[in-house]
Amino acid sequence: MEELEMQVNQIEQLIASGDLVGLEEFLNELNISEVEELIDELPEHGPLFIESLNLNRAVNVFRILDFPTQNRIFKKLSKAKISALINELPPDDRTSFFSEMKDDIKHLILLLPPKDRVEALALLGYPEDSVGRLMTPDYITVKEHWSIERILGHIRRYGRDSETIDVLYVIDGNGKLVDDIRIKDVLMAEPDTVVGELIDHRLISLNAYDPQEEAINIFRMNNRVALPVVDEHGVMLGIVTVDDILWVANEEYTEDMQRIGGTEALDEPYLDVSIKNLVKKRAGWLIVLFLGQLLTATVIEHFEEQMASAIMLFALMPVIISSGGNSGSQASTLIIQAMALGEVTLGDWWRVMRREIISGLLLGLILGTLGFVRIMAWQSFAHSYGEYWVLVALVISLSLVGVVLWGSLMGSMLPFVMKRLGADPASSSAPFVSTLVDVTGLLIYFSVATLILKGVLL
């Protein structure tokens, strides 16, 4: 942090004195991550930093910025720098940038040479959240009959333009993917060894139309730096590297956390979002939750006359509501997280339900016991619940068991329902689950109270 402050001070002095040559030399000596931090600290000078860096470093800095920062800087760059950046960006990063630019990409695509233009349009032709949008066509392919010596010569000739040479891809005469081999195995083999002797046919690949979320899980389970992408016929189209997957995983995590909190996903950093857009993002969910809470009020009004003679039941109502909502939120969060990690799929819904019935019942019994003890303690010291305190305690205990069990079931099953309908499971967020459980929890509570206390207190 202290070093960053020193860099900021030095940058500000160079800019104030108009020493652009010194600024260029200073920036080109820094790591790209340090330049990115300086852009965060001095956002107004971001375009100047990108203009000052040599082209290779400018590209490497630009590609690690989030899109709102990229867009803000891009609009203030010179035409020459824009053209150079667009042409030098790796195909996958260029596709990602173009995807976010939406309607403004036509004039940018025209800046590309014909071959790159065709490539960019092909990558943009894949669905927005598909693996095809992440892949790059810059990779090294080899043939089964090639020797190690020939492979090394091929890498020297074409490796500079490849996204990575850590993995080489074996294809047949029709471009179909046969296998992949690690560069380590190539370097350790004898010069006269042929590729066919190195392959083991334990191939892991992605389809261009696979969801990006699925690719994240495959990378996580297989510890790969890159994976090949094929079409439905097995023809190799490109590769996806782990840096792109990490970027997507971070975006998915951020969106899920915002949805779990009961808001729409923000498209840019919080402090860059206008108040108007911030209200729009939050208002929808708040209205839905408010309407849900109106149902809670309706349930209370329906039972109000019956419960008037047992006013202590209203005093204990928050205990019931909060317990059901908390258990539902817990279950919902656990299942959404398990789905995101690939630990749970749609086919596991019955196993999850059985587990939640058991765990919900046990959790309900624990809270129900505590509720009974609480009523008994207050009755012992203050005689708060009258001669029928045992029945009141029984109402609280049984209601807690029912509400916690129901909350666990609702919270765990809603993500499955949302996913089955094609929606994001994170949309069945904690506030949404809590509101639903509030309404049904009150029905359980008042129904149990009516059943047990009818003819006694009611």
TrEMBL record:
Residues 135-198, 199-257 form the CBS domain. Coiled coil: none annotated. Keywords: CBS domain, Cell membrane, Magnesium, Membrane, Metal-binding, Transmembrane, Transmembrane helix, Transport. InterPro entries: CBS_dom, CBS_dom_sf, Mg_transptr_MgtE_intracell_dom, MgtE_N_sf, MgtE_transporter, SLC41_membr_dom, SLC41_membr_dom_sf. CDD domains: CBS_pair_Mg_transporter. The chain crosses the membrane at residues 283-300, 307-325, 357-376, 388-409, 430-453. Belongs to the SLC41A transporter family. This is Magnesium transporter MgtE. The lineage of its organism: Bacteria, Pseudomonadati, Bacteroidota, Sphingobacteriia, Sphingobacteriales.
